[in-house]
Amino acid sequence: MTVQKLPMVKAINESLRRALASDPKVLVMGEDVGRLGGVFRVTDGLQKEFGDERVLDTPLAESGIVGTAIGLALRGYRPVVEIQFDGFVFPAYDQIVTQLAKMRARSLGKVSLPVVIRIPYGGGIGAVEHHSESPEALFAHVAGLKVVTPSNARDAYWMMQQAVRGDDPVIFFEPKRRYWDKDEVDPGATPLPLHRAAVARPGEDLTLAAYGPMVKVCLDAARAAAEEGRSLEVLDLRSLSPLDFDCVQTSVEKTRRLVTVHEAPVFFGAGAEIAARVTERSFYHLEAPVLRVGGYHSPYPPSRLEDTYLPDLDRVLDAVDRALAY
Amino acid sequence: MTTGTVQFLNHEGELTSHPDHEAEISPDGLRKLYHDMAWSRRMDAEAVTLQRQGELGLWPSLLGQEAAQIGAGHALGAADYVFPSYRDHGIALCRGVDPLDLLRMFRGVTNGGWDPAEKNFHLYTLVIGSQVLHATGYAMGLAKDGSPGAVLTCFGDGATSQGDVSEAFNFAAVYHAPIVFFCQNNQWAISEANERQTRVPLHQRADGFGFPGVRVDGNDVLACLAVTKWALERARSGEGPTLIEAFTYRMGAHTTSDDPLRYRDGEEVAYWNLRDPLARLRTLLEARGWADGAYFDTVAAQCEERAVDLRARLRATPDPDPGDIFAHVHADGHALVDEERARFAAYQATFADAAGRGE
Ligand SMILES: Cc1ncc(C[n+]2csc(CCOP(=O)(O)OP(=O)(O)O)c2C)c(N)n1
Ligand SMILES: [Mg+2]
Fold first, then answer.
1. ipTM greater than 0.85
2. I want to staple B108 with a disulfide (CB 3.0 to 4.6 A). Which of A109, A246, A303, B173 is the partner?
3. Would the CB of B21 count as within 6 Å of ligand 1?
């Protein structure tokens, strides 16, 4: 396959196809992932190509899906499981937190669980309750898990390759409202280390640190700010656990100002952790407190209110103004 | 123990009998059932159209499940309490829920929509299987209070795979809770057919938990009504839980977002179209002379009128106030929510100011 312009759904699909083709131990499991190809079509055609021994339509039970994926991993398989929507991961939360995350340490390193849990997440698609949430902090808080989230199709392709190849459990959050955005995907490119952040747009005056669906919003904000003569640097964190604090530090020590942006509630969120680390590492470089843009401490609202709830360009620029005013 | 599938009205519209159960048959009663089934179907079709026109975000159609829902709905007494899934619009109508409230939820105006205690009808639950445990706990509470009512809870064939549902069966059995587990087996969980969920007929699950399980023809409103009535009466009189598997068929897509052509064949759909729950009741009513063309025309006209009214009321539904984001988060308040609400209001006001200046 040569370089192609693909939407994120197709990039992940191609990446899974390659993983299934190159390693007979890779399995794809989940609700509706086989015959239907997933409700977002991320696994479209995979069961047809690899058969139902490799691509499994499972019973409707998230705890069952993750629990049996753990057993299959103990038996040498590398399951890539799908949770249909963010809000439906919680029946599996017990298996993820008490077993998947901890079994390696419990076994003194004798047991590895190379399980990837794909979760379409985030809002902005006008969905009903439980279909728009951003629960990443609930997983990043748990030692033993790795938590990553691509912001574009290009990264999604190679990040999935790396996630499947690694021997640790990975929670792979897919920003569902960017599923249909296209980008150049180069299967021949050497994949980067999975947990490395990227400077998505270089700038001088302030750093915007974002991931997943909010990277695009920050890039738009940076373009708008540029028209007013402000140079914003945008970081695409790509991984939340581990988090590339070196990249954040380098950027902040250059721009001296930081605004974090995510859809998830700010209270005990990723932005809070980043703000604390930056204060510890770069206190004397800061010209302003680290400001956070994100969700409120409320349940995700009904969809008619989500445009008001979700951070947008105006909210980001409002925080930028406040940070620059110091 | 009930033997075989309970059926009183076969798909050709003929009355049949069953050794363990009895159907109540009166022309008036049948006409009422027909009317409610017809209205639930018409209301549902209206919702699908409204979704297509962008007025709703999503709609899970009940098409094909009218007999199961109207049968169960008619079995309920005033003191009984229902914990529905998200496709149980027919039962909602039986409980007096305004269909506008169902539509408002799928429009994205609210995540709930009605006062559960006022209707004895809990909110829809979208997380598969969760409500079955709530229903069991509620039934345990009814029993503790010595209350006369029973609980009916609805869930799908797919839901039976969830741990929550098995846990609910066991709690209900252990505590002898006054509950009816009403499983609408429409044979599909989105794209997954029954064999992906179970190796045994679902009603047999009850055996292992120690209470009766009955399969009824879910497209036969008389069977659904009779068996649900019997099971509720058992619950009310202290005989514990019952599992009813209403064997039916999801004639439409899973929801308006779904394309069933990707995973099931037309022959199956055609087979079940011949088993349409409304058609067989109409055949019976006509054959017995209990309803004539004029009656069916009147029902259709009434349904049409109400659909037009529903559409108008939905279109007039305002969007919620943005401040609602912070409403009802806690019972006793929360300092952070208050702080964020105030900051949110101040931020929103900057747009109003800016707009004001622009004028
Ligand atoms: C815990 C959970 N997992 C996944 C989903 C996504 N989902 C919505 S409906 C559905 C299928 C449900 O099938 P069934 O229980 O048979 O009910 P039906 O839709 O047929 O009425 C699935 C998988 C969900 N809502 N909740
Ligand atoms: Mg079903």
1. yes
2. A303
3. no
Question: pLDDT tens digits for B65-112?
Answer: 999 999 999 999 999 999 999 999 999 999 999 999 999 999 999 999
Are residue A181 and residue A236 in the same domain, yes or no?
Answer: no
Average pLDDT, chain A: 98
What whole-number distance in Å separates Cα of residue B56 and Cα of residue B109? Answer: 10
Asked whether residue A190 is assigned to any structural domain, the reply reads no
Residues from chain A contacting residue B109 (CB–CB below 8 Å): 302, 304
Query: Do B245 and B344 have their domain in common?
Result: no
DSSP state at residue B255: S
Q: What residue numbers bound the domain in which B203 lies?
A: 27-315
- Count up the domains in chain B and report the number: 2
Is the domain of A111 the same as that of A208? no
Q: Is B254 a catalytic residue?
A: yes
- State which residue of chain A sits closest to B259, comparing Cα positions: A36
Instruction: Give the phi and the psi of residue B168 in degrees, each rounded to 5.
Output: -65, -45
Sort out which chain A residues have CB atoms less than 8 A from B158's CB and list them.
59-60
Q: Is pLDDT above 90 for A198?
A: yes
CA-wise closest residue to B156 among B210, B111, B211, B196: B196
Residue B338 and residue B213 share a domain: no
Summarised one tens digit per residue, pLDDT across range B172-227 is: 999 999 999 999 999 999 999 999 999 999 999 999 999 999 999 999 999 999 99
Residue A267 maps to which CATH number? 3.40.50.920
- Per the DSSP assignment, residues forming a β-bridge with A29 are A56, A81
Whether residue B250 lies in the annotated active site: yes
C-alpha distance from A225 to closest chain B C-alpha (Å) = 18
Q: How many CB pairs under 8 A join A and B?
A: 114
CA of B176 to the centre of ligand 2 (A): 27
Residue where a domain stops, chosen among A138, A155, A185:
A185
Please work out whether the CB of residue B194 comes within 6 Å of at least one atom of ligand 1.
no
pLDDT, one tens digit per residue, over B99-143 is 999 999 999 999 998 999 999 999 999 999 999 999 999 999 999
CA neighbor of B219 nearest in space, from B184, B244, B248:
B248
Q: Show residues of chain B in contact with A57, CB under 8 Å.
A: 191-192, 196
* Cα angle for residues A13, A14, A17 (degrees, 5° grid): 90
Domain-embedded: residue B20: no
Do A135 and A203 fall within a single domain?
A: no
Kindly state the average pLDDT of the residues B51-64: 98
B2 pLDDT above the threshold of 60: no
Q: Is ligand 1 within 6 A of the CB of residue B308?
A: no
Asked if A8 contacts A180 with a C-beta cutoff of 8 angstroms, the reply is yes
Q: Determine the average pLDDT of the residues in B312-321.
A: 96
Distance (Å, whole) CA A234 – CA B161: 44
Average pLDDT, chain B: 96
- The CA-based angle B200-B202-B208, given to 5 degrees, is 80
